[in-house]
TrEMBL record:
Transmembrane segments annotated in the record for this chain: 20-41, 61-85, 117-138, 173-196, 217-235, 255-278, 290-309
Family (UniProt): Belongs to the UPF0182 family.
Segments of this protein annotated with the region Disordered: 886-992
Domain of life the protein comes from: Bacteria
PANTHER family: UPF0182 PROTEIN SLL1060 (PTHR39344)
Any Pfam family matching the protein: UPF0182
Keyword Transmembrane helix: yes
Polar residues composition bias: residue spans: 896-916
Keyword tags: Cell membrane, Membrane, Transmembrane, Transmembrane helix
Keyword Translocase tagged: no
Biased amino acid composition, Low complexity: 960-992
Protein's UniProt name: UPF0182 protein FLX08_19355
Native species: Microbispora hainanensis
Length: 992
């Protein structure tokens, strides 16, 4: 007897041609997909091999492939095995034999002819998703199998911290996999049993199941509950990551209620699992029903209600005393995990009264005070050192140290990177074969400006001129390098790469009468694309046929890609988190990029979890186009690696900086030989290493509350701090600053990274923090000067308010603003000085008109000590106004001739009409100069006449006295953009 419907199982036959076309199309699609996959994998291997990190690629690939296969195979074995078991234990007769509804029978009849195909496709899809998911957890696996002990025990269970950092994530991964496999097995078994009669739905009798189906599901449910018992037991250890209490980590309720509850629930789950298993022997639904009811009831009463009662009636009425011990655990763990436990706190009773002798005592610190602001100077570098329009500088410049007059000084640095070709010259050849690299390193001492307020470049121009001597100036690997470039060729062949522009006659073979010097790359960087096969692979990778057809690509050609320093390091060390601010340095005759790298974890017991992005975001990162750090939450961080990238050949080098870090040791086991020991860092490179900004930002954010080390005081939170908003913009947090300074009690100045704190609800100064940024040791202690809460020293926002409300300052700045000029405040530095705190802020001006050539120039320096404001054309002049002493003009500043005016008390003007007249004439002359500059082309004669009139008016204004203070005169130097008139001292405006 047959139960098939008429026509069931009959295949619809297609005509011969379509039957042949479908396999051909499928074969073509398969070939294309395989080619794409192969080209991606093989070109990745070629790239890793080109940077000598092929072991990283092979370790990652093998680990992911093995995890993919194991995960997919286990999932297929568990789910597929249960499906096969359900099918083999099906009843002999289908559900239609018993008069049941025909829905399941119809589904079975339709599915039967394609049963194997559906099963194989389903298992294939399941294997693909499971394998991909499992392979994505390769880091968890490698950390588990290569785990390194911390040799520190947690406060609750007495286990080594490595159990929580390395082992628990793997156990969670394993449990999640098994839970998923069992749940999918239950769903698949129910479907198969239903389709083949193991379950029958009838009315009014309900669901009827065969003995085999009931036993099968009882075992699966028993295994699920058994896994739940294991999860409850593991949850006990997860309490060290609880966020129930006042602080992160196990609270009073967690330890005294949740912890025993989890143990009890684990035991109950074991009992319930046995009851489910008993359902195999004893038919009926009583045992599974009892087990399910007991499981749910215990989870609600023991797992939820009991802890809530303890929290409500024991903890909340006495929260401070109950939570004290657990808050202390959190404080100790957090400070250690973020590396702030060694911070040195000093009570600092800052003076506010001034004394002329201070200038003599602190004379050695004055030349080191940096006035150039790297966040504002990019347009100035662009206009004065761009040379040609296809070069560019980053929006945010960097701070490093270079010798000036034999002493290391803060220096603003950048590299001249290649941009896109000029408008109208964009094509594939120019984009990828001609405009291939930047050229040169540009540096300006942070405390030197010329009479026009422009940086005095110590390294400049093309070809390079300056103090750094000979070095390889070509930048093939940089922050703004093209996506990819094809470089290299025979030494006697045609040179097509633009090397640098050259003025004057161009007649030799290299210049080709074009006014530019051409070049052929001779480095070892990049991947050779000298044969057709590799060119084909990269043509597929980039979807570009020119890689196959262009005749300039030869046997010596190499393709450069993954060129951004952070990107290159992330590729070779995917286990590291990178600082967002790589910076260039000239080391060993080469330009190298230096990048700080961190090892992080989110599994350090009791340590407070924070988003790394929120910890490191400030006005600098939100205002400028700097790369964003990962948003992942962390509760442990170490600056464990210093990395460099050679700007010419792209060589990546990783140095172990914090060699005691267990997380780094674990990764070193997984990727042997990838990280070099710190002993291999050259002295020249070490001189340019610095304390990383992102780590410092994270630590200062933690210290806003965790400077309080007493649990009772922490509970109250009255002494918590915050990082002040940036006073120049009033938006987001003020960034930390690199500056050379001298800490109280120290005899020598040093390169430091500094920040300030204000109380949570106020704006006065709470503390000043600095760290030795010279990288003399891996983990230098943070030094905190904590001000007494009974004093009210101005915080940065209040200092800025005092500057702007000062009559002298506001009068002159309003005059400048009224003349079509924008006033820009530079970085507000806070420095320990003369047993007090000194604020130093440079003031820049730039034209308000929206022109592509405008740039800021340094015009004034603001100084605040106590309540006294100094405002002068030089730092020395401003300090003299505040302290009343005399500072010899240091060699790093060259003020203009009209600026050297003595400070102190002066006689008031004889007539207010003289002041008004001088101000009016200065305003009219300034307006005339701006009008002359804004004309097209600029009227340089009119501009010169107006500047002469402005200088005379300001000289008259300088002689006038008002009250007991002197009004400094602004410089008559040009402040607008564009090319200066003949004879001017400023550099010529760039062309091209």
């Amino acid at each position: 007897m047959s139960f098939r419907s008429p026509g069931a199982g009959r295949a619809v036959r297609l005509p011969r041609r379509p039957r042949l076309l479908i396999p051909v199309l499928l074969a073509v699609v398969a070939i294309v997909v395989l080619l794409l996959v192969f080209s991606g994998i093989y070109t990745d291997y070629l790239w890793y091999d080109s940077v000598s990190f092929s072991s990283v690629f092979s370790t990652m690939l093998i680990t992911q492939v093995v995890l993919f296969i194991v995960g997919a195979a286990l999932m297929i074995a568990i789910v597929g095995g249960n499906m096969v078991l359900a099918h083999r234990t099906r009843p002999m007769f289908g559900p239609g034999m018993f008069g049941a509804p025909q829905g399941a029978d119809r589904y079975r009849v339709a599915l039967d002819p394609h049963r194997r195909l559906v099963f194989l496709v389903g298992m294939g899809v399941l294997a693909l998703f499971t394998g991909s998911s499992t392979a994505g957890l390769w880091k968890t696996w490698l950390q588990f199998v290569n785990r390194t002990p911390f040799n520190q025990k947690d406060a609750q269970f007495g286990l080594d911290l490595s159990f929580f950092v390395f082992t628990m994530p793997f156990l969670r991964m394993l449990l999640n996999f098994l839970f998923t496999a069992v749940v999918l097995s239950i769903i698949a078994a129910v479907i198969v049993h239903y389709l083949y009669g193991g379950f029958r739905i009838s009315s009014p009798g309900g669901v009827h199941a065969t003995r085999a189906a009931r036993g099968h599901l009882s075992v699966l449910l028993g295994v699920f509950v058994l896994l739940k018992a294991a999860a409850y037991w593991l949850d006990r250890y997860s309490l060290v990551f609880s966020d129930r209490g006042k602080t992160f980590g196990a609270s009073y309720t967690d330890v005294h209620a949740v912890l025993p509850a989890k143990g009890i629930l684990a035991v109950i789950s074991l009992i319930c699992a046995l009851i489910f298993f008993a359902g195999v022997i004893r038919p009926g639904g009583m045992f599974p029903g009892v087990a399910f009811g007991l499981l749910v009831l215990s989870a609600v009463l023991i797992g939820t209600v009991y802890p809530s009662l303890v929290e409500q009636f024991q903890v909340k009425p006495n929260q401070q005393s109950k939570e004290q011990a657990y808050i202390q655990r959190n404080i100790d763990a957090t400070r250690k995990a973020y590396g702030v436990n060694t911070a040195k706190v000093t009570e600092y009773s800052a003076k506010t009264d001034t004394d002329a002798s201070v200038l003599q005592t602190e004379a050695s610190a004055i030349p080191g005070m940096r006035l150039l602001d790297p966040s504002l100077l990019s347009p100035t570098f662009q206009q004065k050192q761009q040379i040609k329009g296809y070069y560019q500088f980053p929006e945010q410049l960097d701070i490093d140290r270079y010798p000036v007059d034999g002493k290391p000084r803060d220096t603003v640095v950048a590299v001249r990177e290649i941009g896109r070709p000029p408008d109208g010259q964009r094509n594939w050849i120019n984009d990828h074969l001609v405009y291939t690299h930047g050229f040169g390193f540009v540096a300006a001492p942070g405390n030197k400006v010329d009479s026009s307020g422009l940086p005095e470049f110590s390294e400049r121009d093309i070809p390079p001129v300056g103090d750094l001597g000979d070095y390889e100036p070509r930048v093939y690997f940089g922050e703004n390098s093209p996506d990819y470039s094809i470089v290299g060729g025979p030494t006697t062949g045609k040179k097509i790469e633009l090397d640098y522009p050259q003025q004057g006659q161009a007649g030799d073979a290299q210049q080709n009468n074009t006014g530019q010097v051409n070049n052929t790359y001779e480095g070892k960087g990049g991947v050779s694309v000298g044969n057709f096969f590799r060119r084909l692979l990269y043509a597929v990778k980039y979807g570009e046929t020119n890689l196959l057809l262009n005749s300039n690509i030869n046997a010596e050609s190499r393709i450069l890609y993954n060129r951004e320093p952070v990107q290159r390091i992330q590729q070779v060390a995917p286990f590291l988190t990178l600082d967002r601010d790589p910076y260039p340095a000239v080391v060993g005759g080469r330009i190298v990029w230096i990048v700080d790298a961190y090892t992080t974890s989110d599994s350090y017991p009791y340590s407070e979890r924070k988003s790394l992005e929120s910890l490191t975001t400030d006005v600098q990162s939100s205002r400028l186009g700097v790369p964003q750090v990962p948003r992942d939450e962390i509760n442990y961080i170490r600056n464990s690696v210093k990395a460099t990238v050679d700007a010419y050949d792209g060589t990546v080098t990783l140095y172990a900086w914090d060699e005691s870090d267990p997380v780094l040791k674990t990764w070193e086991k997984a990727f042997g030989g990838v990280v070099k020991p710190a002993s291999q860092i050259s002295e020249e490179l070490r001189a340019h290493l610095r304390y990383p900004a992102d780590l410092f930002k994270a630590q200062r954010e933690i210290l806003t509350s965790y400077h309080v080390t007493d649990a009772n005081a922490f509970f109250g939170g009255q002494d918590f701090w915050k990082v002040p908003e940036d006073p120049a913009t009033g938006k987001s947090k003020q960034p930390p600053y690199y500056v050379t300074m001298k800490m109280p009690g120290s005899d020598t100045e040093r390169f430091s990274l500094t920040t300030t704190f204000v109380p949570n609800q106020r704006q006065n100064m709470a503390a000043f923090m600095a760290v030795d940024a010279t990288a003399a040791t891996p983990n230098p202690p943070l030094e905190i000067l904590q001000l007494p809460s009974t004093t009210a020293i101005q915080g940065p926002p209040q200092a800025q308010n005092l500057f702007e409300s000062n009559t002298t300052v506001s009068t002159e700045l309003n005059l400048l603003r009224g003349g079509g000029t924008d006033v820009l405040y530079g970085n507000l530095l806070t420095l320990p000085f003369g047993n007090g705190l000194l604020y130093v802020e440079p003031v820049y001006i730039q034209p308000r008109a929206e022109t592509s050539g405008k740039y800021p120039t340094l015009r004034r320096v603001l100084v605040l000590y106590g309540e006294k404001v100094g405002f002068g054309p030089t730092l020395s002049n401003a300090l003299e106004q505040v302290f009343g002493g005399t500072v010899a003009t240091p060699p790093e500043q060259t003020p203009d001739e009209t600026a050297n005016q003595p400070p102190g008390q002066v006689t008031p003007p004889e007539s207010s009409s003289a002041l008004t007249s001088a101000l009016d004439r200065a305003q009219q002359a300034y307006d005339a100069s701006q009008k002359a500059l804004s004309s097209n082309p600029p009227d340089w004669k009119a501009y010169g006449d107006a500047q002469t009139s402005l200088k005379k008016a300001l000289d008259d204004l300088a002689k006038l006295k008002t009250g007991a203070s002197q009004t400094p005169a602004p410089s008559a130097s040009p402040s607008a953009s564009g090319s200066p008139p003949a004879g001017a001292t400023a550099s010529p405006a760039p062309s091209g």
